[in-house]
What we know:
This protein is of the alpha+beta class.
Amino acid sequence: MIADLKPYPEYKDSGLPWAGSVPGHWELRPAFGAYTPVLERNRGLREKTVLSLSYGRIVVKPADKLHGLVPESFETYQIVNPGDIVLRTTDLQNDHTSLRVGMVHDRGIITSAYLALRTKAGMAPSFGFQFLNVWDRSKAIYGYGSGLRQNLDFSHFKRMPVALPPAEEQAAIVRFLDWANGRLERAIRAKRKIITLLNEQKQAIIHRAVTRGLDPNAPLKPSGIPWLGDIPAHWEVRRMKNIAQLKSGDGITSQEIEETGPYPVFGGNGMRGYTSRYTHDGHYVLIGRQGALCGNINYAQGKFFASEHAVVATLRPGISVQWLGELLRTMNLNQYSQSAAQPGLSVERIKNLAVPFPPESEGELIARDLIGETAPLTAAISCLLRRITLLREYRTRLTSDVVTGKLDVRAAASRLPAAAGSPEPDPSPEEEEFASPDEIMDDEGE
């Protein structure tokens, strides 16, 4: 069905470089003729359901994410209703990766730092959301805003042209996109389930190797470590501080991090970008120190900058970096985090953890064996991730082409089954990595 879609017979210039030409019969309105800002304060704490913009979705914030927020602070929040559209309008200067537009599905409250819009007569809320979603994903939104951190207000884009199809055509576009995105999301979820199974298989191989070694017949002895049980009789048990020097990285501002540059910057969740200076030179294990994902493990090699959100493990001579990294991953360091508004790992606590320690030569053999044994699984996972990336890129392009009228979906939408809705998409690994500052405050700790 998608392959059979054709363009419209006539087009006109939209006045929007990112949208190009739009169908000739579509109306062009300024944004203030299609949307109106809404700001209803939560005075008297009328609403209790706290919402959050997370990875392009408006979701109910779990109670355990409300640490540090007192009920009185919710009086400053704004009330939003199903069908409203929320834009994160802050920090356009520094954050070019987050998804900034979401549609509200539940009545509740959300921070007043965000801009809430409601569609006017003639524009369906779902189509109004899709139009701004395409604007956001095109990155054209970053041409607006003012101030040092380039914050956005409705006045900055209220005269931006909005391409508005007739009402029945808007309904057809939304219906088609729900169907198409549903199919694509189901394909993506199926691949992610396979990736989960492959990762579980990979972790089982790694766990066995780093806790029992390569010889299945080796004599065993009690380790004295509750989570571990027995270890090979010739292994030792050591504290982490006797294996590696552990130290948090240095402070760096978001303004210092660029999309390109000579040295990569590693934070608690992996690489964040590039900068002009470096803190380390060599091969290191990095441990995420803050946020819901604290305790995750990354590797860095060569010259790089480690931020304060990463703990850098500098190994004693002769100890394999790969062996230690995979051992730490197996240990699930997140379980040792301190519960707070920002979950965090104490460097001192990591230093004093007891771990199994094979002879150095055996540790190197374990690392080499793991690379070879897990290589087919790693390759399969990489292949599936590439396919997911292609599906997501295709979905973004298809949505843009349909919303801006490059493809006519009216006939296709009329042939769709009655239940053509799409599931709410899961955040991609890329979206999780590049969360907005609000999402980071809740989830990432970066």
